[in-house]
């Protein structure tokens, strides 16, 4: 029986028509797009689950903030509104806005990393991995073993493997580790959360060896909700208390604010108390993002972000947000469609390897499933598997991802129960004809972050 759908804690006062295309039109569109869903026009997509980044619906308070925002080049009141709210939430002395998450990585990571250095994470997501490698450093993932057991429930599959972390530090020598990163929630392994206890122990290891600890904070509020619901010690704590405690264990954070801060554009960098690091950060910000008090954003964006940071922490919103994803997962359970269990915070990650076992990793089963979802019902989703992982930066050979996930990322405050039902019905139809689905081969690819612009064709 499906989990009860959690009622939206808002009402709708404006609507946007959705395009409904024929199957023949969708077949033509995906072929023109070279079988890359990023190349589709949004007007050719009915339900867009490509990402939850910047695709959220802002509130009336945020839109009101847009109208009263300060567009001054330097010292705008919207900048101070944002930085004060962020300091209150995270407890960090220095807050630097930037225009999105990968801008935060571009500004910060070259200060901490370089050639012959290593960065270790529970799991790096694609843009963070790319920006680490662009500095000349190399990435190492230390995810807990239970994350690889896709069909098995574990409350904190996003955790760092602490034993492997310390072994890696000792093997490579602490002076060669430029950074340890904790991604919350852990996107690449299915939007899985990190426990407070795991964060605390990771912090102890990092600081024992004098290595900076960074939080990739794109979905920090969802992670805090999971801590509250699944970690007994924090059951009675507020979301804001959990957030401030978790961030107290790190030294810096980067954030794509386009997720849990419910805005269409924006990012943040936080530095706990290192004034020297902040001075270097300001130099890079001015070079890459503009002046420090706007960080590549308009005053409108700064004001919407200042408000969205608070809205994204509301208990009733998070109950609805996570509940919506859990409802989708419960319907998948009824249909016996495999996914990373439990459902993540920002979406459901379908196990394409299990659903399409006849397609090998080098023919990209997660991408094949994403293409079929578009053909079946106009649903756009995303490969989080070998296609996204790309090639080894040194050997240039195709890497095999530990997961072949097709990610169904749910935008915040955008879709209703009926949309989720359409998604499941489409997956059931695909499952019924899965033996006829083919893999894909690469025709053209870029050397970095190839999945955004890659061109593919079906294997005959």
Describe the protein in words.
- The chain is an alpha/beta fold.
- The chain has two domains: 23-52 and 314-458, Alpha-Beta Complex (Aspartate Aminotransferase, domain 1); 60-311, Type I PLP-dependent aspartate aminotransferase-like (Major domain) (Aspartate Aminotransferase, domain 2, 3-Layer(aba) Sandwich), CATH 3.40.640.10.
- Helices cover 40% and strands 13% of the residues.
- Helix 5 links the parallel strand 3 (118-121) and strand 4.
- Helix 4 packs parallel to helix 5.
- The longest helix has 20 residues, at 315-334.
- The chain is globular, with a radius of gyration of 21 Å.
- The protein starts with 22 loop residues before the first helix and ends with a strand.
- The model has no long low-confidence stretch (mean pLDDT 95).
Question: Would you spell out the secondary-structure blueprint of this structure?
Answer:
Blueprint: H1 23-32, E1 47-48, H2 60-68, H3 77-90, E2 94-98, H4 101-112, E3 118-121, H5 126-134, E4 138-141, H6 162-172, E5 177-183, H7 196-208, E6 213-216, H8 220-230, H9 239-248, E7 252-256, E8 267-271, H10 275-288, H11 299-311, H12 315-334, E9 347-351, H13 352-355, H14 365-377, E10 379-380, E11 382-384, H15 386-389, E12 405-409, H16 417-432, E13 440-444, E14 455-458
Parallel strand pairs: 1-10, 3-4, 3-5, 5-6, 6-7
Antiparallel strand pairs: 2-8, 7-8, 9-12, 11-12, 13-14
Helix pairs in contact: 1-14, 2-11, 3-11, 4-5, 4-10, 8-9, 12-16, 14-16
Compose a concise summary of this entry.
It contains 16 helices and 14 strands. With 460 residues, the protein is an alpha/beta fold.
């Amino acid at each position: 029986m499906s989990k009860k759908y959690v009622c939206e804690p808002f009402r709708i006062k404006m609507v946007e028509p959705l395009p409904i295309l024929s199957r023949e039109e969708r077949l033509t569109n995906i072929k023109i797009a070279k079988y890359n869903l990023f190349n589709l026009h949004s007007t050719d997509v009915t339900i867009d689950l490509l990402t939850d980044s910047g695709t959220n619906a802002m509130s009336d308070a945020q839109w009101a903030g847009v109208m009263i925002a300060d567009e001054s080049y330097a010292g705008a009141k919207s900048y101070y509104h944002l930085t004060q709210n962020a300091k209150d939430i995270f407890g960090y002395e220095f807050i630097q806005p930037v225009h999105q998450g990968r801008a935060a990585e571009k500004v910060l990571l070259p200060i901490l990393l370089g050639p012959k250095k290593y960065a270790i994470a529970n799991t790096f997501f694609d843009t963070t991995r790319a920006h680490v490698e662009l500095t000349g450093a190399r990435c190492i993932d230390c995810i807990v073993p239970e994350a690889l057991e896709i069909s098995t429930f574990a409350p904190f599959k996003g955790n760092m493997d602490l034993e492997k972390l310390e072994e890696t530090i000792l093997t490579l020598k602490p002076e060669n580790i430029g950074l340890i990163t904790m991604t919350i929630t852990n996107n690449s392994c299915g939007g899985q959360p990190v426990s407070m206890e795991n964060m605390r122990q990771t912090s102890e290891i990092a600081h024992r060896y004098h290595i900076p600890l960074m939080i990739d904070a794109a979905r920090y509020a969802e992670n805090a909700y999971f801590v509250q619901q699944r970690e007994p010690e924090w059951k009675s704590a507020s979301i804001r208390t959990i957030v401030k405690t978790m961030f107290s264990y790190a030294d810096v954070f980067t954030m794509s604010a386009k997720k849990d801060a419910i805005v269409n554009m924006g990012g943040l960098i936080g530095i706990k108390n290192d004034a020297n690091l902040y001075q270097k950060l300001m130099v890079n910000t001015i070079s890459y993002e503009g002046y420090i008090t706007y960080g590549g954003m308009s005053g409108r964006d700064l004001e919407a972000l200042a408000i969205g940071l608070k809205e994204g922490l509301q208990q009733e919103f998070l109950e609805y947000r996570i509940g919506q994803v859990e409802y989708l997962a419960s319907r998948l359970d009824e249909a016996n469609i495999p996914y990373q269990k439990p459902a993540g915070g920002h979406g459901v990650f379908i196990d394409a390897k299990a659903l399409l076992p006849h397609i090998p990793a080098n023919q990209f089963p997660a991408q094949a499933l994403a293409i079929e979802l578009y053909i079946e019902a106009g649903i756009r989703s995303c490969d989080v598997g070998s296609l996204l992982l790309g090639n080894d930066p040194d050997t240039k050979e195709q890497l095999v991802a530990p997961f072949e996930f097709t990610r169904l990322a749910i935008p915040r405050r955008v879709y209703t129960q009926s949309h989720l039902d359409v998604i499941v019905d489409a997956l059931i139809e695909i499952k019924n004809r899965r033996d006829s689905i083919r893999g894909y081969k690469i025709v053209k690819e870029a050397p970095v972050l190839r999945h955004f612009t890659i061109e593919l064709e079906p294997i005959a």
